[in-house]
Amino acid sequence: xxxxxxxxxxxxxxxxxxxxxxxxxxxxxxxxxxxxxxxxxxxxxxxxxxxxxxxxxxxxxxxxxxxxxxxxxxxxxxxxxxxxxxxxxxxxxxxxxxxxxxxxxxxxxxxxxxxxxxxxxxxxxxxxxxxxxxxxxxxxxxxxxxxxxxxxxxxxxxxxxxxxxxxxxxxxxxxxxxxxxxxxxxxxxxxxxxxxxxxxxxxxxxxxxxxxxxxxxxxxxxxxxxxxxxxxxxxxxxxxxxxxxxxxxxxxx
Length: 253
Fold this sequence. Notes:
Layout (H helix, E strand, L loop, with lengths): L1 H11 L17 H19 L4 H8 L4 E5 L5 H6 L20 E8 L4 H16 L10 E5 L5 H8 L2 E9 L10 E7 L10 E7 L6 H18 L18 H9 L1
Parallel strand pairs: 1-3, 2-3, 2-4
Antiparallel strand pairs: 4-5, 5-6
Helix pairs in contact: 3-5, 5-7
């Protein structure tokens, strides 16, 4: 029995999936049940919570920020009517300054406020510092927004590419996962097959710095090839790591 317990423990160290939970009668042990209920509550909070756009704007300073709202007037409507989250509310497009720009970043609350609050700024900054030489437009903070809202924003700014940083639908192992959707020549009506996606950006997944590395590579390739989507394959060089320590250690052996 101890060997079996040790095996499950070793496997649990390799994954956040719920494996080898055991049982108490015909149900879960109390600890496993409480952890499941906590994860479910965190997922619900992420969906129904509000992104802290005030804190995001402050963290982005001194970058220019434009705040926009979708046609969904509140959270319940946003969850019931995805179509309203894909277009701007009346008069909002007039807030966009004139372009053109090479890149515009849109931070959208999506389906996880926690993901945006915790990971959006770090991912954006990690990307922007690798885009030297490109014209980056104002950062758009979009409330009650879906991915396709970026097409409207990008077209309004005459942007070559738009990167939408958005809270992903939470699961029971990660309620704070951020996704990024990249679209070349954004305009209303773009298909999902015309976008590239980076997913699973959070503390236990892809780090914001690694996501910035990959996203900057994709942006430059999109501008060079003049496309995104299924025809743009993510082949960025492996995320750079500092190998000096291992080299020095080998030399001292």
